[in-house]
Amino acid sequence: MKSPIGLYEKAIPLQVPLTQKLTLCQQLGFDYLQLSIDENPHRLQRLAWDRSQRQQLVNFLFAHKIRIQSLCVSANRQYPLGSPTDSIRRQGRNILQKAIDLAADLGARNILISGYDVFQAPKTILTRENYLESLQICADYAAQQEVMLSIETMDDSFAKNISVIQKLISQIASPWLKIYLDLGNLTAWEENNVGSEIERGIGQITEIHFKDARYVSRDGQGQFRNVPYGQGDVDFDGCMKLLHRLNYQGPWVIERWAQVHEPYQEQIITAKNFLLSYLNRYFSN
């Protein structure tokens, strides 16, 4: 049995209805769609779906032989779990807990959560403590629903590699908190020893975002999004050979962001073929 391949929802334009996104996902040969819950009101509203709406979507998934296997909850950019403001922090936890409920109802197994205490704001001992407190509350809630939470290696220094995420996880008493590997984000921080980091965390990696990126050292900021595959700094040959040696058997997700007026379906196909070329080279036996 081969590892499933998913598609990040934002690879398809926002205005495309969710059912059409799922149909396209199935037609293009993906095993599942990774649903986005960001700060966009249209996507946040999904957390308020009633039982009937959730049942209709589950029926659609079964009828069309496609899945929503994981959720990417990035709404905590606006409502960070480590915010020094109590009301914002509570709202951030509420969003994540509602996402856990949604995942349980849809049959999604994993939730990608943001690996930072606050977003584009001063980081302090307090914001880190607030983040850990919120993380424990949400991990406890996830345990009750048997839904995995996975902290992503980020485009933010707070969780720029697996080692620092493991330090965070070590503070939380829960088996329902793991690591989400983003190959692009991990690579972009040039000081990271990518191979050693993956070796260190292989037993905790639940899912992998497959994307390219450019080193932060190039311009002080790097490029974490929309780097054409093969034109960035990710050593795909090295990473894929390493992950095969370490017997990674989990899913892969093509992470892209649809650009205005671009032929997004062609871009998705190109990205999928790029991934398949490496899977066929290193994971075919």
From TrEMBL:
Keywords, in A-Z order: Isomerase
Molecular-function annotations in GO: intramolecular oxidoreductase activity, interconverting aldoses and ketoses; L-ribulose-5-phosphate 3-epimerase activity
Residues annotated as signal peptide: none
Record carries keyword Transcription regulation: no
Pfam family membership, one: AP_endonuc_2
Gene Ontology terms describing biological process: L-ascorbic acid metabolic process
Xylose isomerase-like TIM barrel domain ranges (all copies): 23-266
Gene3D superfamilies recorded: Divalent-metal-dependent TIM barrel enzymes (3.20.20.150)
Entries under NCBIfam families matching the protein: hxl6Piso_put, PRK13210.1
Name of the protein in its database record: L-ribulose-5-phosphate 3-epimerase
Species assigned in the record: Bombilactobacillus mellifer
